Amino acid sequence: MDRSAEQLLAVLAALDNPHRLRIIQALHRNGRNYVSQLARELNISRPLLHLHLQKLEEAKLVTSQLELSDDGKALKYFEVADFHLLLSPATITEAVGKQ
């Protein structure tokens, strides 16, 4: 998958944080999860988790879906998107384009 320079930078910036790496790890290992449960598992606040999830979603590394629980509560579920990142001089050159 070809990525523009902006997309590549967004992915690299999103992965440049230990919390976001832990989020991807937890979602990959345990599957999709909703924000409150994921915050408990990672032992971080929901507002902080939301910020990190937003960054990951903007980089297209996670996806979300809003669902209603049996008791009528809205739950936002997140899961890891199917992505593969090969970082090499060639992929950087391709992303940046020929000067």
Automatic annotation (TrEMBL):
<dbReference type="InterPro" id="IPR001845">
    <property type="entry name" value="HTH_ArsR_DNA-bd_dom"/>
</dbReference>
<dbReference type="InterPro" id="IPR051081">
    <property type="entry name" value="HTH_MetalResp_TranReg"/>
</dbReference>
<dbReference type="InterPro" id="IPR036390">
    <property type="entry name" value="WH_DNA-bd_sf"/>
</dbReference>
<dbReference type="GO" id="GO:0003677">
    <property type="term" value="F:DNA binding"/>
</dbReference>
<protein>
    <submittedName>
        <fullName>Predicted transcriptional regulator</fullName>
    </submittedName>
</protein>
<dbReference type="InterPro" id="IPR036388">
    <property type="entry name" value="WH-like_DNA-bd_sf"/>
</dbReference>
<keyword id="KW-0804">Transcription</keyword>
<keyword id="KW-0805">Transcription regulation</keyword>
<dbReference type="InterPro" id="IPR011991">
    <property type="entry name" value="ArsR-like_HTH"/>
</dbReference>
<dbReference type="Pfam" id="PF12840">
    <property type="entry name" value="HTH_20"/>
</dbReference>
<dbReference type="GO" id="GO:0003700">
    <property type="term" value="F:DNA-binding transcription factor activity"/>
</dbReference>
<keyword id="KW-0238">DNA-binding</keyword>
<feature type="domain" description="HTH arsR-type">
    <location>
        <begin position="10"/>
        <end position="83"/>
    </location>
</feature>
